[in-house]
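Instructor's aside before we start: the two examples that follow are unrelated to each other. I chose them only because their records fit on one page, so don't look for a connection. First example below.
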Amino acid sequence: MRAIASVQLDKRRPALILTRQSRLLLLSAVTVAPITSTVRGMTSEVHVGPRNGLDHESVVSCDNITTVRSDAIYGTIGLFFDDQEPELARAISDAFELYLP
């Protein structure tokens, strides 16, 4: 499982924490994927919603992955489940045009 946290980006918004859990306390910066309610239907998006602790249907925007200072993370608001990981891997691959056999 991965955490969905409130993160200060352009404004405070939910974001999926991509940095592995075992390194979060050791690093001064954390990689996140912003979550937005603007759904464009792109292959680089992953659907999330109430199951994940969010108020409404949204998407993880893998086209906008960024790294923030660890003090820009304000707290966990939800969870991203293991069964969603394959879709996340595909979305990241599509966002960065990576070839996966």
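Example two begins here.
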Amino acid sequence: MAGQKRHYLITGAAGLVGPALAERLLEDPDNVVFLTDLVKPSVPAGAKHPENVRLLEADLCDTDAMKGVVAAALPLTAAFVFHGIMSGASEANPALAMKVNVDAVRSLLLHLAEVQRGVRVVFSSSNAVYGPPLPDVVTEATTPTPTGVYGSCKYMMEILVNDLTRRGEIDAFSVRFPTISVRPGKPAPAASAFLSGVIREPMNGLPCALPLTDRGFKATLCSPRVAIENLLRVVAWPSDKLPPHQRAVNFPGIIASVQELLDALAKVGGEDKLKLVRDEPNAAYEALLRSWAWSLDYSKPLALGLVRDKDAEGLVREYVATLKK
């Protein structure tokens, strides 16, 4: 029906992905977006219809607070579950990671199933679910064997998503993000944060420390723009896009080495920016980074209609363009 409002809930909405996704959703005057996080989120700066934003400050680890957020957003068109403790912080505090990344997510999913059976959910997972021993090329058929707290938590919730969807309790997909680069804002407490910082900090006149000295180290990256586009595509998928008990999909990324990022930085930002990059080895972070899967075959997600970036230089140019706005 024309003019009928569609309600979208985004948790962890004070981070990178939430505001950018909300901005895209708010291009449509019939979309109402509920943003929630531990700290009160802000209305996205570029929101076309800011009157359709609802800002909810809540600790989703608190059951009553979580239920209050869900009640405010009902009836839901979809929920995007983005809240969580990131990889580096998860290793530093496994108990907190379990509380936020498992207990709070589980509680939210079960409550959504209770109050709106069959609701569409998009759960943010990660390539960190993969770990050694890894095949030469990783696909969705590769069995996850995470070696970090963060990846383990994500995989546990993927299994719950599969089971709840199989039973018809929710209609969900788990999207495994590659490393998003270039992230705007401050460095995140993640082992992979330098993959944004190596561009972002020098372009803002700030130093960046690399946790490993290997310039040949390769990572799988995607831009914020491509991540948001793929989220919008997944949330609109019909339920039978994937089997009811296999709901995870790898978001496509490009493979780039640290040296390729540095070359792109020099080409786009100038050779002088390289002087701001220094080595600061972190053995724990390097071990975590090297345990993750960085060589993935994206035939399946691309065949399903998802998209990816072109190259490392494109990631840098996209970020630099945001600085000029």
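DSSP finds eleven helices and twelve strands in the chain.
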